[in-house]
Design a protein that fits this description.
Layout lengths: L2 H4 L17 H14 L2 E5 L6 E2 L15 E5 L2 E10 L12 E8 L6 E5 L12 E6 L10 E6 L1
Antiparallel strand pairs: 1-2, 1-3, 4-5, 4-7, 5-6, 7-8
């Protein structure tokens, strides 16, 4: 082989692959509750008692099926956060905005979601936040538009 035959050509491009998939039984119930009832539900492990939010079919700690559904609060505590300043086509909002890791009241695990109605310079771990639901909900995590400080 000659040097020319071995040379790799690299193309920079973007491929969009739209697709649909089933989120499964557990996530479907979670999203339906958000959409139809504005209720945030978790699953409770019968073995260790942890409330998993977002809900999971199996507890990641003890690997037991977490079949019992429980409502968790729409309020919680901000555990950590990050502020996004750079745009990307896959972001749900135009930067700058913040994502927070939120431990909802009644849950033992955390949810990552958008923080809104907040001064980005005044966000701090430990602050209390509350879910703000969209008026027109579609059955996905963005039915909660954002969490605002309370």
């Amino acid at each position: 082989m000659t040097k020319k035959e071995e040379e790799a050509v690299i193309l920079s491009t973007r491929i969009v692959l739209p697709f649909s998939y089933s989120v499964g039984r557990t996530a479907s119930r979670f999203f339906i509750e958000l959409r139809d009832n504005k209720r945030i539900m978790g699953t409770k492990c019968p073995n260790c008692g942890r409330v998993l939010m977002p809900p999971r079919r199996y507890c990641g700690k003890c690997l037991t099926e977490a079949g019992k559904w429980v409502e968790v609060g729409d309020k919680g505590t901000l555990v950590a956060y990050t502020v996004l300043y750079r745009s990307s086509s896959n972001l749900p909002k135009k930067p700058p905005f913040a994502y927070g890791i939120i431990k909802l009241d009644g849950a033992d695990t955390n949810l990552v979601h958008i923080l809104g109605e907040v001064d980005l310079d005044k966000i701090k771990p430990g602050m209390r936040v509350q879910a703000v639901f969209k008026d027109q909900r579609e059955g996905n995590i963005l039915d909660i538009d954002h969490f605002k400080p309370i």
